[in-house]
Amino acid sequence: MTELVPRLPAHAVETIQRFLRAHALAPGLDGVVVGLSGGVDSALTARLCVDALGPAQVLGVLLPGAFVPRERVAETEAYGQALGLETRTIPIPPIVEAFRAALPSLDDRVALGNVQARIRMTVLYTLARERRRLVAGTGNKSELLLGYFTKYGDGGVDLLPIGDLYKTEVRALAEALRLPEAIRARVPSAELWEGQTDEAELGISYEDADRVLRGLEELRREEAIVETTGLPAATVRAIVQRVERHRHKRRPPPVAKVGLRTVGLDWRE
Hints:
Layout: H1 12-24, E1 32-35, H2 40-53, E2 58-62, H3 70-83, E3 86-89, H4 93-102, H5 109-131, E4 134-136, H6 141-146, H7 167-176, H8 181-184, H9 198-202, H10 206-217, H11 222-229, H12 233-245
Parallel strand pairs: 1-2, 1-4, 2-3
Helix pairs in contact: 1-2, 2-3, 2-7, 10-11, 11-12
């Protein structure tokens, strides 16, 4: 069954470009900093930023970890150069090792993966401050809903240009804009440890996850999603539970209300 498959809106590129210009070229700002991983999300984000703002207003930063092949780094640097933007490559293993030296008991690979994500965002924000720029995140709608990001790591950004595009829509737009085939065909992975892939961790393909998420967006009941997609009820239930379980990642920290108006509750910005 094909119903509930997200379809890329015709106005997506124009809307994202207007969004970027409004935020990244506001008074006192001079563009964006984008973390480049070699994956399709960051490649598409960089391309959209360059098209909207111009290459001089986009800094691409490569922050390879211990499991990122050298060939990947060279390919990603070449992609940035092809876009005409400035790139910087800052390997993070020395920083990770310094962190591990401070906490020698830390051996959980997920926790260490989160450390890497937070180190990367710290570097991006340091560079962004130097240049009076915003950090443009590369997260997509699927990742946001599934909670597949590190809180205050890759989730700690100033703006999310592709945050309202499902992963399948990201792939469709990358194809429409003719991003390099090697990038578009790459298996999604944060490469936080040997053999790590997004879909293995999630336990479901992005194509199937997006169909369930689209059903939730349309406020359909679980039973209706199962019937429409043909996916097992247990699979749909697992996705629904994951969206609910990671709700805290999509919300600002709760504040105990004491005063007249409270940030995050009734203080309107």
